[in-house]
Design brief:
Four copies of one chain form a homotetramer. By secondary structure, chain A is α+β, with helices and mostly antiparallel strands. Chain A has one domain (4-135): Hotdog Thioesterase (Thiol Ester Dehydrase, Chain A, Roll). The first copy, chain A, has three helices and eight strands, in the order βααβββββββα. Chain A has helices at residues 23-40, 45-50, 126-135; strands at 4-9, 53-54, 57-64, 73-84, 87-96, 105-112, 114-115, 120-121. In chain A, strands 1-4-5-6-3 form a five-stranded antiparallel β-sheet. The longest helix of chain A has 18 residues, at 23-40.
Chain lengths: 136, 136, 136, 136
Amino acid sequence: MKNFIYDRTIHFRDTDAAGVVYFANVLAICHEAYETSLVASGIDLKSFFTGNVAVPITSAKIDFFKPMFCGDHLKVLLDSNLISADSFEIKYQIFFDGESQRAIAIAETKHTCIDSIIRKRISLSPQLLQWIKFNQ
Amino acid sequence: MKNFIYDRTIHFRDTDAAGVVYFANVLAICHEAYETSLVASGIDLKSFFTGNVAVPITSAKIDFFKPMFCGDHLKVLLDSNLISADSFEIKYQIFFDGESQRAIAIAETKHTCIDSIIRKRISLSPQLLQWIKFNQ
Amino acid sequence: MKNFIYDRTIHFRDTDAAGVVYFANVLAICHEAYETSLVASGIDLKSFFTGNVAVPITSAKIDFFKPMFCGDHLKVLLDSNLISADSFEIKYQIFFDGESQRAIAIAETKHTCIDSIIRKRISLSPQLLQWIKFNQ
Amino acid sequence: MKNFIYDRTIHFRDTDAAGVVYFANVLAICHEAYETSLVASGIDLKSFFTGNVAVPITSAKIDFFKPMFCGDHLKVLLDSNLISADSFEIKYQIFFDGESQRAIAIAETKHTCIDSIIRKRISLSPQLLQWIKFNQ
C-alpha cells in the first residue's frame, strides 16, 4: 500500500472569523488531493469532471482533531478502495508537515459512477479502476 | 419535537462544472441553517463566532440522495441534541421545497464548547442550552 | 429608475481570519443579487446558467468603505444598463439594513452574451433585454 | 523589475455550472499569489492576517479575456507598488502555463494599513515596505 500525498498550504480564504479553517473547506482540500491524484495517474481533469460519465460523491465524513491556521503546511495522504463495480471510497489523513505521528483530521468520501445524462449507475471505467489500484 | 426550518435557494456559486452543487457547499448550507436558528433564539452571531468561547465542529457527515441545481429551492430542517455538558450534535434534513416526503440529503455535525484562548473544553453556556432545548 | 433590492445576512462562511467578510465574497454576494433579480423577472436560473447561451462576466470592480461582520444585515441595490447589442453592465450599492445614507461598498460587473459552444458574441435575448429594462 | 510568480492549477471547487472558473474565485487565486509572495519575503501568514495591524483591501478590479477550466495550469505574475505611507497596490497578470504572450486575466487590488482594533490608518511596517520593494 502506497499513499498518494498532496501538499497544501492553508490560504486566507480557507479561514473564518473564528481564526481557523472553516470546517467544510477541509473537505474541499481533500477533494483537491483527489484531483491531484487523478492527474498523477494520467487522467485529464477537464474531461473527467464535465463528460457524460460522472462519479458524484454520495457521502462524506470528517473528524477534526486540531485546528488549522492560515499559513499552516499540510500533507494530505489519500488511499482509494473499490466498493463495488460502480463505486469506490477514498480515505484521507491530514497531517501538519513534519508531524506524521498524529493526524489533525481524517475524512472519507464515497463515489458512485453514473451516466450524467440519464443519472443511472454504470461500471467504473478502466481508467478509474487503474487509479484505484494505483492508490490503494 | 419541532424542527427549525431554513429556506435557501441554490446560488450559482454553490455549483461546480458538473452542473450540480459542489458537495462540501451543502455542509456550508447546513451551517447557514444553524446560524439562522441561533439568531432566531436571540443569539448575536458576531459575538458568538468571535468571542472567547467557541464551539468548533469536531465531526461532520453527509449523505446525498439527489443532485441539486442552480435555482433549486430547498428547505433545511434542523434539530439539535445535547451529547454531554460540553458538546451537542445537529441533524439536518434537506428537502426540495414542496417535496417533504423524501430528503435529498441528510447531514450531521458535532460541536464541542471550548475556551478559544487555551483551547480547553468548557461547559455549554445557558444561552446554548436554551437554543438546544428550543430545537430538539 | 427603480432598483432591485436583495436582502442578505452575512454568513460565517463569508468571513475570514481577520474577522470580517473576505473581499471576493462581496462580489459573490452581488452575483446572488443578480441571480435573484433574474428570477424576479421570470428567468429560470438552471437553464439560464447552463444553456448554450452564456453571459460571462468580462470585468468586475468593487470599492469597500466599511468592514462587514458575521450576522450583519445587508441591502444590495442593483441596476442594469445596456452597453451594446451583446453586452450590459450591473451596478451594485451595498448598505447596512436601516442605514441607506452611506454605501458600505459599491461594485460593477460587465457581461457579454456568447454562444457557449463556439464562444462567439451573440445578441442579448429578448428575455435579458426585458430584465435590463426592468432594472435600469 | 522582477515579478513574483505563483503557480496554480484550477480546482473543481473553483468552477461553476457554466463549466468555467467562477469569476470571484479568480480574485481569490490572486490573493493566494499575494500570500505566497508574503511568505517568500519571510512574513509569517498567521500573525500577519490576525494581528492588530491589518491591511484590508479597499478596492479590487479584474478583467477576463479567456475562460479557465478545471485542471488548467496558471502562472500568476504579481508586482506591488507603494501608493502612500499607509497604502499599496498589487497588479496581477494571469497566463496559461507556457503561453506567456497573452494574459488571460489582469487584476488589481489596493490595500490600506490600519490598526485593526480602532480601525484607523497607520503607516506600513518596515516588513511590508521591504516586501513591496522586493516585488516592484
